[in-house]
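Re: that chain you flagged

S.,

Sorry for the slow reply, it's been a week of failed gels. I finally had a moment to sit down with the sequence you sent. For the record, here it is as I used it:
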Amino acid sequence: MKKSIILSLALVAPAFAGEPVAPVTVVEPAPAPAPCWTVEVGPHYTLATRHLGAGAGDLDMGGIDITGLYNVDDKWAVTLRFSWAEGDAYRPDWYNTDQQEYFVKDVDGQAWSIMPGVRYTSPITEDLDWFVGANVGINNLELETAWESRDATGFGYSAETGLKYQVIDNLYIYGAVQVSGSTADPHGIRHQFGYGIRAGVGFEF
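Prediction finished late last night. Pasting the structure tokens below so you have them in one place:
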């Protein structure tokens, strides 16, 4: 009986003697890599202060943007945007001195552009970010009346700032205000500069 008690104490004693215990290492899971590519799709509307010929004829245009982004890191991205739009305006045609008014003719417009650019994004909250971006590239504008149609290609540019909200993983919604301009000059347009809004959905992968 004594031998059994002594043997038990001999086995248990090291546990109370403060023998070192091997440390437990907790392995943190590696964070998921940030998506490298994003595609944004959505409508846009631009009020373009394009002066058509001899008088002011603002050309309002609405259309769609498709923007591809390559995310260099969590803040900077390289972008490529394709835009298409159409709209109309009333171009003052000639002035009637007797009636003291302009005769006008309807002008239909179509435009497309391909513009690479860059974007900077910064977080506001966990799901809400703000961003600024700029694009330069090629812009084509076609204006058509009942008598003729002309188009021209020139240098196009835009700058924007906006917000994006992460709805679920790999999907967000965005809205932005932008200014844009073009050197394309069909029908003797003297000046092209516009401001507008963009909105849509972004898919990350």
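What I noticed first: The beta strands are 37-48, 59-71, 76-96, 101-123, 128-144, 149-168, 171-182, 193-204.

Talk soon,
D.
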